[in-house]
Amino acid sequence: MDDLIRHEKQINHQLARYGVKFGIYKDGTFHERLFPFDTIPRIITAQEWEQLEKGLAQRVTALNLFLKDIYGKKQILADGIVPEDFVYRSPGYLPQCEGITPPGGIYSHISGIDLVKGKDGVWYILEDNLRIPSGASYPLIARELCRRCSPDTFRHNHIVDNRQYGQLLRQTMDSVSTGGINVVFTPGRYNAAYFEHSYLAEQSGAVLAEAGDLYVRDSVVYYRSIHGDQRVGALYRRVSDEYMDPLCFEPSSLIGIPNLMTAYRAGNVAVLNAFGNGAADDKGIYYFVPKMIRYYLGEEPILCNAPTYLPIDETDKKYIMDHLDTLVVKDVAEAGGYGVVFGSKLTKEKLEDLRQTILANPRRFIAQEVIDFQDLPIMDEGQKVERKADLRAFVLSGADKTVVWPSGLTRFSRNPDSFIVNSSQGGGFKDTWILSR
Amino acid sequence: MDTVTLSKQSRLFWLGRYASRTYMTVRYMMKQLDALIDEKPVPYEDFCRRMGIPCNYRNSEDFCRKYLFDSTDPSSVARCVDAMLGNGMTLRETITSPTLAYLQMAQSAMDLAARSEAPAVELQWVLDDIMAFYGSFDGSVEVENARNITKTGGLVERLSLMLRLDLQPEKVEPELQKLVNRLYKTDLTPQPGPLAVIEKQALEDQPAEPAALLAAVEGLFVL
Amino acid sequence: MSRLLHFTYDIQLAFSAPVVQHAFVLRCLPPDLPGQQILDAGLTLDPSVPFSIQRDNFGNLLEVGQLEDPHDHFWYRARGSVRVDFAQRQLVRCSPIFRQPSFYTRLSPELTDWLNTLALPQNPRDLAWALAQAVHDRLEYVAGSTGVATTAAQAFHAGKGVCQDFAHIYLALARQAGLAARYVNGLPQGEGASHAWCEVWLDGLWTGIDPTRCRWTDEGYLRFNIGRDFGDCPMERGVFRGPADQTQTVFMRVSQQQ
Asked: Which domains can be identified in chain C, with CATH numbers?
C-alpha cells in the first residue's frame, strides 16, 4: 500500500489524462473538475464481503419485489405491512406505471446502496438509490490506472478484479432487452456525470445517445442512424423519470423522447432503471425495507438499517421525544422541506420548535440514531489523516440473476468535521478492494 | 455496428476540423513566438483580417499571448482545443477512451503552455498529442465511414486555413484532390454549387479565384 | 332510463408557422365500460397519419402518433354513438390512489382552513353533495380566468375558475374529508366545449358529481377519461419542433337519439 502512496503523483496524472472529471454548476456556469482520488484503498476482507454480498443481494431482491407489488397486486399494502400513504404520497410514485410489468420483471437493474461501517464494526445501510445511481465508472477506471502505476501492489495482494463492470452492465441490459441495440441515454455533455455516461457506454459496448438521436414510431424506440434506423431493445437512461417523455411526464422537457412511455407500456423496450422506482427509495420507505425482506423472502435481513423511528408509531414517538437531542431527524416530504437536522446541533429553542413540528406533522418525519462512522485514512498534503467515508455498493439485477459488483465507490469528505461525502462538496474517492482470501 | 446519427456525423466532422485547426494554428503561432525573440513585428492585424476574427489585440506580444491562451476570447486556440476535446468527449464510445486521452493530453499541454515561460516547448507537446490522436483514431475507429467523416473535416479545415493565410499555395491542388477522393468515401452530402467549383479546380484544372475557392470550401458542407 | 347518445368532438390546432416532428397523444375517444357501451366510434386526423390505440393504466384510450413532415394545422375529429345505462354499472374496488392528494389537488392552508369551517354531514353521500354545493357557492365561474397549469390551491385563492378548477378543488376537499374521488373529463349532452367533473366512490360505485353545475351526473354525461387530476388524462398533448404559436378551436356536440 505504501507503494501506492508513493505513486500518488503518477496515478493522479493518469486520472487527469483520462479526463476523470465531474461537472458542477457554479454561479450559473458549467465547470469540470477532476474528481480527487486518494490512493489508500478501503479494504474489505473476504469474510466481510461474503456477508455484504449476501445482504445486498437480499435487500435489492426484496426491493424489486416491492416495486413489482406496489405497481401490481399491492399485496403488501393490503396486508398492512407498509401503510398505503407512504407509497402513494411519495413524490417518486408514478401512477402512470400502474399495471406495467417491465421486461424481465425487474425494476431496479442498477442499484446503488449506500453503507457506512460503524465504530462497532457493523455495516449499516444509509440509503437505497434505485433511480439512476451514479459513480461506478470512477473506481472502475481508477483500478485500471492503479494497476498500471503500482503493479507490485496488485501482485502481492489478493484483490478481486473489478474490471468486469462493463460486461456485467451489458449482460444486465441483454437479459432484459426486447431485441435491438443497447443504448446509454445521456442528457448531454454538460451533465455532471457525462464522463461516466460516455465511459459506461464504451465499456458495455452500448451506443451513447441524446435526445434527438432516438424517436418512437408505432410504439417502438429507434435510434436514428444514417443507414436505416435501428431498433432499441434496452435503454440505460441517465435522465430522471420526469424528463423522459414530455407527453407523459414534464411537458416542457426538451431532453426526453416523445412517446417513449407508449413503447414502454407496450413492452417494446426495457428501460433501466424502470420508471417510478422513486416510490421505493425514499427516506420514509427505508424504514420498511427490513419488513419487506421478511415479508417477501421469509428471511431475516442480513444487513441492518441505521436504527430508525417513525413518529406515527406511539412507542417510537415517545422514544423520539425523549431522545431528540441525540437523534438525526429527516424530512421525508418533497424538496423544500426541513432537510436533515442533527438534534445535537440545535439550540434549546430550535429543538423545541422541531419537537412541535414533528408532533404536528408526524408523517413527515423519520428519526435515526447518529451512527459513529469508522473513519478511513487519507493522505492530506503528505500527512495521513482520518476522514469520514461511506461506501456505495452496486448491485446489478438482470432477468436471470442478481450480482453484487465486487467493488464500490468509497467517498470521503475533505473537511474533517463534515459528514457529507458528496463529490460536489469537494469530497474525493478511493478504490475499494475486496480481498479474495 | 454502423451507428452514425446525424448529430454524430456533425461531431465527427467538427472533431476533424478542430483537430486540424489546432494543429495548424499552433504551428503558425510557434513561428510567431520565434519571431518575437528577435523583436520582429507579428502581422497580427493582417492575420485577423484574413481569419475573419475581431482584432482586439494591443501589440504583437499581446496577440501571441491572447490568441493562444485566452479562453475568454472565442477565436483563441485555447477555445479551439476545448471544442476539439468537447467533440471528442461526445464520441467516446466511437473513438475509444485511449484515443480520447490524447485530446485530453493536448488540452493539459495547452494549460501548461499557458503558464510556461517558454511555451513553445509545451506547444510542441500539443502537436505531438494531436499526431498521436490521429494514429490512435485510425487504429481504433472501426467504422470506415466515421473515420472518413473526421478526415474530411480535417481536410476542409486545412484547405480553409491554407487559402486564408496563403500557406503553401502549391499544395492547394493536391489537397483539393484528396478532399474530393475522401468525401466520396463518406455519406456526407456536399452542397452541389461549392462541389462544382472544387471539382473544376481539382479534376479539370480550372482554377477559381482564391476567394471563391475559399467560399466553396467553407460552404461545401452544412453541418 | 338508458340513453343513446351521438357525439362529435372537433379540435382544430393551427400553427402560426409550419412545424415538424410533431408527436401527439390524444385521449379523445370514450372507452367501453359497464354502463357505457360504445356502439361505434372513430377518429379522423388531418393531415392524415396513422395512429395506434393504447390503453393507459387508468383504462383510458390513447391515440398515439407522429407527424414528421412540415404542417401548419392538425385537426382531429372524433365521432360515435354510445349507449349510457346506469343500470349496467358494476360494483368495483377502489384503488387507494384516489384517496391521496395529487399534484393539482394538493391542499393549501387556505383550503384546509376553509374546509374546517364547513359544517359537514357524516354520511358519505350527503358529504359528497354538501361539498359540491359548498364549492359551487364559494367559486365564481369565469371563463379564461385560469390556465391548464392552475392548481386547486391557486384557483381557490383567486376565488374563480373553470370546470377543471371546480373539479380540482372538489377533489382536494373530498379526499381530505375521507372520500375516494377522481377526476373525469368528457362531453355532457349539449354543445360547446369539453367538460370536467368528478366521481366519488359511494357504496362500491363510482358516482358522478359535477361541482361546476352543482348536480349529480346523469346518463347524459359521456365519460372519456379518468385520473387523479387533469395531469393524468389531458385530452390532447403534443410536442413539436418549430418556432410557432398554437391556437386551438374546440367544438363538441352530444345529442340524444330518440
From this structure: 3-86+235-257 (2.60.40.2250), 90-232 (3.10.620.30)
